[in-house]
Amino acid sequence: MTEGGKLIIFSAPSGSGKTTIVRHLLDQPELNLAFSISATSRPRRGKEKHGVNYYFMSISEFKKHIKNEDFLEWEEVYRDNFYGTLKSEVERLWAEGKNVIFDIDVVGGLRIKKKFPDKTLAVFVKPPSVDELKIRLKKRSTESDDKINMRIAKASVELATAPQFDKVIKNYELDVALKEAHKLVAEYVGAKVPGPKEE
Length: 199
Prior knowledge:
Rossmann fold, single chain, alpha/beta, four-stranded mixed sheet, five-stranded parallel sheet
């Protein structure tokens, strides 16, 4: 792979708020960020679009990419539910002169960090508690109770990986977490952060 801009990883258990944080950061032009769209074999949810939210693939298509070593990292998150980062996606964004931001599962995040240790900032977003996670996931009402329980069981394991990340942001209050994430990423990419606006 050709080297390019910086890589910024946001990982967390489902329902921690990492997607909200990543979306906020993408709206800050001075950070020069572009979103790395993951590939997945899971079915679309709601209004999700191919090439916007994910690159949706069949299981056989996904496995073919694994065989061809097209992924920077990939993982079978749940049975027959694959997620991965295509090398071509990161190269495409680097070619545009962007810093690449990932909203990615914990294992995938750490794998990318290991491959590009000198140009990756890995951030773990910590929810207030596992109970709070359960409440947030139920509020989404996009998944069955069984699926939610699977995510909660996985969250306990994921929370234990927090010390392996460069930084941990506690998402107890979203406004505070957003400010902290912005400051962190701005410092990492060397962006000038606008001063506080007059209220």
